[in-house]
Amino acid sequence: MYDYDFFVIGAGSGGVRSSRMAATYGAKVGLCEDYRVGGTCVIRGCVPKKLYVYASEYSSAFKDAEGFGWSAERPTLNWQKLVGNKENEITRLEGLYGQNLDNHDVEIIKARGKLLDNHTIELTDENGSRTVTADKILIATGGWPSFPDIPGIEYAISSNEAFDLPELPKRITVVGGGYIAVEFAGIFNGLGVETSLLYRGEEILRGFDLEIRSKLREEMIKKGIDVRIHTNVDEIKKDGDQFVLTLSDGNEMATDLVMYATGRKANTAGIGLDELGVEMHENGDIIVDENYKTSVDNIFAVGDVIGGMQLTPIAIKEGAALAATQFNDTPTTVNYDHIPTAIFSQPPIGTVGLSEENAREKYGDDLKVFRSEYKSMKFTLAGRDERSLIKMLVDGKTDKVIGAHMIGPDSAEIIQGIAVAIKCGATKAQFDDTVAVHPSSAEEFVLMK
Protein backbone atom coordinates (compact mmCIF):
# COMPACT_ATOMS: atom_id res chain seq x y z
CA MET A 1 0.00 0.00 0.00
CA TYR A 2 2.86 2.40 0.80
CA ASP A 3 6.30 3.19 -0.59
CA TYR A 4 7.85 2.62 2.86
CA ASP A 5 6.95 0.81 6.05
CA PHE A 6 8.72 3.56 8.00
CA PHE A 7 9.78 7.02 6.93
CA VAL A 8 11.93 9.32 9.08
CA ILE A 9 12.13 13.10 8.75
CA GLY A 10 15.47 14.21 10.20
CA ALA A 11 18.85 12.44 10.19
CA GLY A 12 20.04 13.33 13.67
CA SER A 13 20.87 10.92 16.47
CA GLY A 14 17.30 9.77 17.12
CA GLY A 15 16.29 9.51 13.49
CA VAL A 16 19.41 7.66 12.39
CA ARG A 17 19.21 5.10 15.20
CA SER A 18 15.48 4.50 14.77
CA SER A 19 15.71 4.10 10.99
CA ARG A 20 18.67 1.75 11.19
CA MET A 21 17.09 -0.45 13.86
CA ALA A 22 13.75 -0.58 12.02
CA ALA A 23 15.56 -1.72 8.87
CA THR A 24 17.39 -4.37 10.92
CA TYR A 25 13.98 -5.69 11.97
CA GLY A 26 12.93 -6.04 8.32
CA ALA A 27 11.11 -2.77 7.62
CA LYS A 28 11.52 -0.89 4.37
CA VAL A 29 12.85 2.47 5.55
CA GLY A 30 13.35 5.89 4.01
CA LEU A 31 15.00 8.89 5.67
CA CYS A 32 15.13 12.50 4.49
CA GLU A 33 17.47 15.27 5.60
CA ASP A 34 17.83 18.74 4.10
CA TYR A 35 21.27 19.48 5.59
CA ARG A 36 23.84 16.87 6.64
CA VAL A 37 23.51 13.40 8.09
CA GLY A 38 24.41 13.32 11.78
CA GLY A 39 22.25 16.13 13.11
CA THR A 40 23.14 18.66 15.77
CA CYS A 41 25.45 16.39 17.75
CA VAL A 42 27.81 15.40 14.96
CA ILE A 43 27.64 18.47 12.70
CA ARG A 44 27.17 21.49 14.97
CA GLY A 45 27.02 20.24 18.55
CA CYS A 46 28.68 17.71 20.81
CA VAL A 47 31.46 16.52 18.52
CA PRO A 48 32.87 19.83 17.18
CA LYS A 49 32.29 21.43 20.58
CA LYS A 50 34.39 18.79 22.35
CA LEU A 51 37.12 19.20 19.74
CA TYR A 52 37.17 22.93 20.40
CA VAL A 53 37.23 22.34 24.15
CA TYR A 54 40.34 20.19 23.66
CA ALA A 55 41.90 22.95 21.53
CA SER A 56 41.16 25.66 24.09
CA GLU A 57 42.61 23.66 26.99
CA TYR A 58 46.08 23.70 25.46
CA SER A 59 46.61 27.33 26.46
CA SER A 60 46.41 26.30 30.13
CA ALA A 61 48.35 23.10 29.48
CA PHE A 62 51.30 25.06 28.05
CA LYS A 63 51.44 27.10 31.26
CA ASP A 64 51.06 24.00 33.46
CA ALA A 65 53.93 22.30 31.63
CA GLU A 66 56.45 24.78 32.98
CA GLY A 67 55.89 23.43 36.50
CA PHE A 68 56.90 20.01 35.21
CA GLY A 69 60.13 21.25 33.68
CA TRP A 70 58.95 21.90 30.13
CA SER A 71 59.53 25.14 28.28
CA ALA A 72 56.78 26.06 25.80
CA GLU A 73 57.84 29.32 24.26
CA ARG A 74 55.21 31.57 22.67
CA PRO A 75 52.76 28.95 21.34
CA THR A 76 50.36 30.37 18.74
CA LEU A 77 46.95 29.30 17.48
CA ASN A 78 46.09 28.88 13.81
CA TRP A 79 42.31 29.28 13.96
CA GLN A 80 41.74 28.45 10.28
CA LYS A 81 43.68 25.21 10.67
CA LEU A 82 41.57 24.23 13.68
CA VAL A 83 38.35 24.95 11.77
CA GLY A 84 39.60 22.97 8.77
CA ASN A 85 40.64 19.97 10.86
CA LYS A 86 37.29 20.05 12.65
CA GLU A 87 35.50 20.07 9.31
CA ASN A 88 37.55 17.10 8.10
CA GLU A 89 36.58 15.12 11.18
CA ILE A 90 32.84 15.80 11.06
CA THR A 91 32.87 15.05 7.32
CA ARG A 92 34.51 11.71 8.11
CA LEU A 93 31.88 10.97 10.74
CA GLU A 94 29.07 12.03 8.42
CA GLY A 95 30.40 9.57 5.86
CA LEU A 96 30.41 6.76 8.42
CA TYR A 97 26.81 7.54 9.39
CA GLY A 98 25.76 7.42 5.73
CA GLN A 99 27.69 4.22 5.10
CA ASN A 100 26.10 2.57 8.13
CA LEU A 101 22.62 3.49 6.90
CA ASP A 102 23.45 2.23 3.41
CA ASN A 103 24.69 -1.05 4.87
CA HIS A 104 21.31 -1.51 6.53
CA ASP A 105 19.38 -0.64 3.36
CA VAL A 106 18.00 2.65 4.67
CA GLU A 107 17.33 4.93 1.71
CA ILE A 108 18.77 8.40 2.38
CA ILE A 109 17.03 11.24 0.54
CA LYS A 110 18.65 14.68 0.52
CA ALA A 111 15.51 16.78 0.71
CA ARG A 112 13.27 18.71 3.07
CA GLY A 113 10.30 16.69 4.26
CA LYS A 114 6.80 18.01 4.91
CA LEU A 115 3.68 16.08 5.84
CA LEU A 116 0.78 16.46 3.41
CA ASP A 117 -1.39 13.96 5.26
CA ASN A 118 -0.77 11.25 7.82
CA HIS A 119 0.74 8.91 5.21
CA THR A 120 2.16 11.29 2.59
CA ILE A 121 5.43 13.22 2.72
CA GLU A 122 6.41 15.95 0.29
CA LEU A 123 10.13 15.94 -0.47
CA THR A 124 11.64 19.17 -1.76
CA ASP A 125 15.17 19.70 -3.03
CA GLU A 126 16.89 21.95 -5.57
CA ASN A 127 15.28 20.01 -8.42
CA GLY A 128 11.72 20.44 -7.23
CA SER A 129 9.21 18.40 -5.22
CA ARG A 130 7.82 14.89 -5.19
CA THR A 131 5.79 12.80 -2.77
CA VAL A 132 6.26 9.44 -1.08
CA THR A 133 3.99 7.47 1.21
CA ALA A 134 4.68 5.53 4.40
CA ASP A 135 2.75 3.39 6.84
CA LYS A 136 4.49 4.93 9.87
CA ILE A 137 6.30 8.25 10.07
CA LEU A 138 8.84 9.55 12.58
CA ILE A 139 9.49 13.23 13.23
CA ALA A 140 13.09 13.59 14.43
CA THR A 141 13.89 17.13 13.34
CA GLY A 142 15.64 18.15 16.57
CA GLY A 143 15.98 21.66 17.94
CA TRP A 144 17.25 25.03 16.80
CA PRO A 145 18.74 28.00 18.68
CA SER A 146 16.18 30.57 19.82
CA PHE A 147 16.73 34.31 20.18
CA PRO A 148 14.90 36.92 22.24
CA ASP A 149 13.02 39.69 20.47
CA ILE A 150 15.20 42.72 21.22
CA PRO A 151 16.44 45.57 19.02
CA GLY A 152 19.60 44.58 17.16
CA ILE A 153 19.28 40.83 17.74
CA GLU A 154 20.05 40.32 14.02
CA TYR A 155 23.68 41.14 14.84
CA ALA A 156 24.02 38.15 17.18
CA ILE A 157 25.23 34.67 16.29
CA SER A 158 24.38 31.29 17.84
CA SER A 159 26.55 28.28 18.56
CA ASN A 160 25.83 27.12 14.99
CA GLU A 161 27.90 29.94 13.51
CA ALA A 162 30.53 29.95 16.26
CA PHE A 163 32.19 26.83 14.86
CA ASP A 164 33.05 28.40 11.52
CA LEU A 165 33.95 32.03 12.18
CA PRO A 166 36.26 33.39 9.47
CA GLU A 167 38.52 34.67 12.23
CA LEU A 168 38.53 34.86 16.02
CA PRO A 169 37.34 38.16 17.52
CA LYS A 170 39.43 40.01 20.09
CA ARG A 171 36.38 40.29 22.36
CA ILE A 172 33.22 38.21 22.61
CA THR A 173 30.14 38.44 24.80
CA VAL A 174 28.20 35.23 25.41
CA VAL A 175 24.61 35.76 26.55
CA GLY A 176 23.08 32.88 28.50
CA GLY A 177 23.81 30.71 31.49
CA GLY A 178 23.15 27.15 30.34
CA TYR A 179 25.64 24.47 29.43
CA ILE A 180 26.12 25.73 25.86
CA ALA A 181 26.87 29.24 27.15
CA VAL A 182 29.41 28.19 29.78
CA GLU A 183 31.10 25.72 27.42
CA PHE A 184 31.60 28.31 24.69
CA ALA A 185 32.73 30.93 27.20
CA GLY A 186 35.45 28.49 28.24
CA ILE A 187 36.34 27.70 24.64
CA PHE A 188 36.75 31.32 23.55
CA ASN A 189 38.60 32.27 26.71
CA GLY A 190 41.00 29.36 26.28
CA LEU A 191 41.61 30.36 22.66
CA GLY A 192 42.75 33.79 23.80
CA VAL A 193 39.58 35.82 23.25
CA GLU A 194 38.61 38.40 25.89
CA THR A 195 35.38 36.77 27.06
CA SER A 196 32.33 37.99 28.95
CA LEU A 197 29.30 35.93 29.96
CA LEU A 198 26.01 37.63 30.83
CA TYR A 199 23.18 35.77 32.54
CA ARG A 200 19.90 37.21 33.75
CA GLY A 201 19.36 34.68 36.56
CA GLU A 202 20.73 34.35 40.06
CA GLU A 203 23.30 31.70 39.19
CA ILE A 204 24.54 30.01 36.00
CA LEU A 205 23.48 26.44 35.06
CA ARG A 206 19.90 26.59 36.35
CA GLY A 207 18.63 23.15 37.32
CA PHE A 208 21.98 21.72 38.42
CA ASP A 209 23.29 21.43 41.98
CA LEU A 210 23.64 24.96 43.36
CA GLU A 211 27.02 24.45 45.04
CA ILE A 212 28.47 23.03 41.82
CA ARG A 213 27.03 25.97 39.86
CA SER A 214 28.59 28.50 42.21
CA LYS A 215 31.90 26.67 42.12
CA LEU A 216 31.98 26.80 38.33
CA ARG A 217 31.33 30.54 38.26
CA GLU A 218 34.13 31.05 40.79
CA GLU A 219 36.59 29.05 38.69
CA MET A 220 35.54 30.76 35.45
CA ILE A 221 36.22 34.15 37.00
CA LYS A 222 39.66 32.92 38.14
CA LYS A 223 40.40 32.07 34.51
CA GLY A 224 39.70 35.63 33.47
CA ILE A 225 36.12 35.34 32.18
CA ASP A 226 33.94 38.34 33.05
CA VAL A 227 30.89 36.51 34.42
CA ARG A 228 27.95 38.74 35.29
CA ILE A 229 24.73 37.41 36.81
CA HIS A 230 21.48 39.38 37.15
CA THR A 231 22.44 40.94 33.82
CA ASN A 232 20.57 40.93 30.52
CA VAL A 233 20.89 42.71 27.18
CA ASP A 234 18.15 45.19 26.22
CA GLU A 235 19.60 46.29 22.88
CA ILE A 236 22.50 45.64 20.50
CA LYS A 237 23.84 48.51 18.42
CA LYS A 238 26.47 48.34 15.70
CA ASP A 239 29.19 50.94 16.12
CA GLY A 240 31.74 50.67 13.33
CA ASP A 241 33.59 47.37 13.69
CA GLN A 242 32.23 46.72 17.18
CA PHE A 243 28.90 46.30 18.93
CA VAL A 244 27.60 48.23 21.91
CA LEU A 245 25.28 46.40 24.29
CA THR A 246 22.76 48.25 26.42
CA LEU A 247 22.44 46.22 29.61
CA SER A 248 19.45 45.78 31.89
CA ASP A 249 21.20 47.75 34.64
CA GLY A 250 21.48 50.77 32.34
CA ASN A 251 25.20 50.39 31.63
CA GLU A 252 26.77 49.78 28.23
CA MET A 253 29.57 47.47 27.15
CA ALA A 254 31.47 47.18 23.87
CA THR A 255 32.35 43.90 22.21
CA ASP A 256 33.45 42.56 18.83
CA LEU A 257 30.99 39.65 18.66
CA VAL A 258 27.78 38.67 20.45
CA MET A 259 26.80 35.02 20.80
CA TYR A 260 23.41 34.02 22.19
CA ALA A 261 22.93 30.72 23.96
CA THR A 262 19.56 31.36 25.60
CA GLY A 263 17.80 28.13 24.74
CA ARG A 264 16.65 25.99 21.86
CA LYS A 265 13.22 25.41 20.34
CA ALA A 266 11.80 22.31 18.71
CA ASN A 267 12.31 22.41 14.95
CA THR A 268 8.64 21.82 14.13
CA ALA A 269 7.58 24.86 12.10
CA GLY A 270 6.62 24.48 8.45
CA ILE A 271 6.58 20.68 8.22
CA GLY A 272 2.80 20.18 8.19
CA LEU A 273 2.22 19.27 11.83
CA ASP A 274 -0.31 22.03 12.54
CA GLU A 275 -2.32 21.26 9.42
CA LEU A 276 -2.42 17.59 10.32
CA GLY A 277 -3.57 18.25 13.89
CA VAL A 278 -0.48 16.89 15.65
CA GLU A 279 -0.75 18.22 19.20
CA MET A 280 2.11 20.36 20.44
CA HIS A 281 2.92 22.47 23.46
CA GLU A 282 2.91 26.25 23.07
CA ASN A 283 6.69 26.24 22.62
CA GLY A 284 6.47 23.81 19.68
CA ASP A 285 7.46 20.60 21.49
CA ILE A 286 5.50 17.64 20.13
CA ILE A 287 3.31 15.84 22.67
CA VAL A 288 3.84 12.07 22.71
CA ASP A 289 2.80 9.12 24.85
CA GLU A 290 5.13 6.60 26.51
CA ASN A 291 5.63 4.90 23.13
CA TYR A 292 6.50 8.21 21.39
CA LYS A 293 3.20 8.22 19.50
CA THR A 294 1.72 11.63 18.71
CA SER A 295 -1.98 12.50 18.67
CA VAL A 296 -2.02 11.06 15.13
CA ASP A 297 -1.83 7.26 15.46
CA ASN A 298 0.83 6.44 12.86
CA ILE A 299 3.06 9.46 13.47
CA PHE A 300 5.80 9.38 16.09
CA ALA A 301 8.45 11.75 17.46
CA VAL A 302 11.68 11.33 19.43
CA GLY A 303 14.63 13.43 20.60
CA ASP A 304 14.89 17.16 21.15
CA VAL A 305 11.68 17.73 19.22
CA ILE A 306 9.62 16.35 22.13
CA GLY A 307 11.39 18.43 24.81
CA GLY A 308 12.65 16.64 27.91
CA MET A 309 16.36 16.15 28.43
CA GLN A 310 18.02 17.34 25.23
CA LEU A 311 20.86 14.83 25.19
CA THR A 312 22.16 12.76 22.30
CA PRO A 313 22.15 9.44 24.22
CA ILE A 314 18.50 10.04 25.17
CA ALA A 315 17.48 10.56 21.53
CA ILE A 316 19.36 7.39 20.57
CA LYS A 317 17.62 5.34 23.25
CA GLU A 318 14.22 6.75 22.30
CA GLY A 319 14.80 5.97 18.64
CA ALA A 320 15.86 2.40 19.42
CA ALA A 321 12.90 1.88 21.77
CA LEU A 322 10.47 3.10 19.12
CA ALA A 323 11.89 0.77 16.47
CA ALA A 324 11.81 -2.25 18.79
CA THR A 325 8.22 -1.53 19.81
CA GLN A 326 6.85 -0.89 16.33
CA PHE A 327 8.86 -3.30 14.19
CA ASN A 328 10.16 -6.09 16.43
CA ASP A 329 7.07 -6.80 18.53
CA THR A 330 9.12 -5.93 21.63
CA PRO A 331 7.43 -3.17 23.65
CA THR A 332 10.30 -1.05 24.94
CA THR A 333 10.40 2.12 27.01
CA VAL A 334 13.24 4.38 28.14
CA ASN A 335 14.04 4.67 31.84
CA TYR A 336 14.71 8.33 32.54
CA ASP A 337 15.89 7.82 36.13
CA HIS A 338 19.49 8.55 37.07
CA ILE A 339 20.60 9.97 33.72
CA PRO A 340 24.25 11.10 33.90
CA THR A 341 25.21 14.41 32.35
CA ALA A 342 28.53 16.02 31.54
CA ILE A 343 29.14 19.72 31.01
CA PHE A 344 32.40 20.41 29.19
CA SER A 345 32.97 23.69 30.91
CA GLN A 346 36.43 24.55 32.23
CA PRO A 347 36.67 22.93 34.72
CA PRO A 348 34.24 20.24 33.54
CA ILE A 349 31.25 18.93 35.48
CA GLY A 350 29.82 15.43 35.82
CA THR A 351 26.51 14.82 37.53
CA VAL A 352 23.94 12.06 38.07
CA GLY A 353 20.82 11.81 40.23
CA LEU A 354 19.26 14.47 42.43
CA SER A 355 20.76 17.86 43.21
CA GLU A 356 21.09 18.71 46.89
CA GLU A 357 18.17 21.13 46.59
CA ASN A 358 15.84 18.52 45.07
CA ALA A 359 17.05 15.84 47.45
CA ARG A 360 16.25 18.05 50.46
CA GLU A 361 12.73 18.56 49.17
CA LYS A 362 12.25 14.81 48.78
CA TYR A 363 14.13 13.40 51.76
CA GLY A 364 14.15 16.25 54.27
CA ASP A 365 16.13 15.52 57.41
CA ASP A 366 16.94 12.02 56.18
CA LEU A 367 19.31 13.43 53.59
CA LYS A 368 23.03 13.01 54.23
CA VAL A 369 25.47 15.16 52.27
CA PHE A 370 29.10 14.14 51.84
CA ARG A 371 31.56 16.48 50.16
CA SER A 372 35.25 16.72 49.37
CA GLU A 373 37.09 19.77 48.05
CA TYR A 374 40.72 19.49 47.01
CA LYS A 375 43.39 20.58 44.53
CA SER A 376 44.04 18.09 41.75
CA MET A 377 47.47 16.48 42.05
CA LYS A 378 48.27 17.66 38.53
CA PHE A 379 47.98 21.28 39.61
CA THR A 380 50.29 21.07 42.63
CA LEU A 381 53.41 21.34 40.45
CA ALA A 382 51.66 23.38 37.79
CA GLY A 383 50.77 26.01 40.38
CA ARG A 384 47.28 26.42 38.93
CA ASP A 385 44.77 28.02 41.32
CA GLU A 386 41.93 25.58 40.67
CA ARG A 387 40.12 23.35 43.13
CA SER A 388 37.83 20.38 42.54
CA LEU A 389 34.61 19.62 44.40
CA ILE A 390 32.85 16.28 44.79
CA LYS A 391 29.48 15.71 46.45
CA MET A 392 27.55 12.58 47.29
CA LEU A 393 23.93 12.60 48.45
CA VAL A 394 22.59 9.67 50.48
CA ASP A 395 19.15 8.65 51.73
CA GLY A 396 19.81 8.18 55.45
CA LYS A 397 17.03 5.62 55.83
CA THR A 398 18.16 3.20 53.13
CA ASP A 399 21.81 4.28 52.79
CA LYS A 400 21.28 4.42 49.01
CA VAL A 401 23.25 6.97 47.02
CA ILE A 402 20.71 9.23 45.30
CA GLY A 403 22.99 11.79 43.69
CA ALA A 404 26.63 12.42 42.81
CA HIS A 405 28.20 15.60 41.49
CA MET A 406 31.74 16.53 40.54
CA ILE A 407 33.51 19.58 39.15
CA GLY A 408 37.14 19.12 38.21
CA PRO A 409 39.42 17.29 35.75
CA ASP A 410 38.06 14.04 34.27
CA SER A 411 34.57 14.60 35.73
CA ALA A 412 32.81 13.23 32.66
CA GLU A 413 34.91 10.07 32.60
CA ILE A 414 34.48 9.45 36.33
CA ILE A 415 30.75 10.12 36.56
CA GLN A 416 29.94 7.44 33.97
CA GLY A 417 31.09 4.70 36.33
CA ILE A 418 29.38 6.32 39.31
CA ALA A 419 26.14 6.42 37.29
CA VAL A 420 26.26 2.65 36.79
CA ALA A 421 26.63 2.15 40.54
CA ILE A 422 23.72 4.47 41.35
CA LYS A 423 21.58 2.82 38.65
CA CYS A 424 22.24 -0.50 40.38
CA GLY A 425 21.12 0.90 43.74
CA ALA A 426 24.55 1.12 45.40
CA THR A 427 24.69 2.18 49.05
CA LYS A 428 27.14 4.47 50.76
CA ALA A 429 28.46 1.44 52.66
CA GLN A 430 29.25 -0.28 49.36
CA PHE A 431 31.11 2.80 48.13
CA ASP A 432 33.04 2.85 51.43
CA ASP A 433 33.85 -0.85 51.08
CA THR A 434 35.37 -0.32 47.62
CA VAL A 435 39.15 -0.07 47.48
CA ALA A 436 40.40 3.29 46.25
CA VAL A 437 42.38 3.75 43.04
CA HIS A 438 45.29 5.81 44.30
CA PRO A 439 46.38 8.44 43.47
CA SER A 440 43.34 9.63 41.53
CA SER A 441 40.44 12.06 41.78
CA ALA A 442 37.99 9.16 41.40
CA GLU A 443 39.07 7.72 44.75
CA GLU A 444 37.39 10.65 46.53
CA PHE A 445 34.03 8.96 45.86
CA VAL A 446 35.00 6.00 48.05
CA LEU A 447 36.83 7.97 50.76
CA MET A 448 34.25 10.55 51.84
CA LYS A 449 33.43 10.19 55.53
Descriptive account of the structure:
- Strands 1, 2, 3, 4, 5, 6 and 16 form a 7-stranded mixed beta sheet that branches. The chain has a 5-stranded antiparallel beta sheet with strand order 17-18-21-20-19, sandwiched between helices. A 4-stranded parallel beta sheet has the order 10-9-8-14.
- The model has no long low-confidence stretch (mean pLDDT 97).
- Helices cover 32% and strands 25% of the residues.
- A hairpin with a 2-residue loop joins strand 4 and strand 5.
- It is an alpha/beta fold and 449 residues long.
Query: What's the N-to-C terminus distance?
Result: 66 Å
- Residue runs with pLDDT of under 50 for 5 or more positions: none
Helix content percent band = 25-40%
Rg, rounded, reads 24 Å
Q: Tell me the β content.
A: 25-35%
Specify the number of helices: 13
β-strand number: 21
Characterize the overall form. Answer: globular
The overall pLDDT, averaged over residues, is: 97
Q: Which sheet architecture does the biggest sheet show?
A: 7 strands, mixed
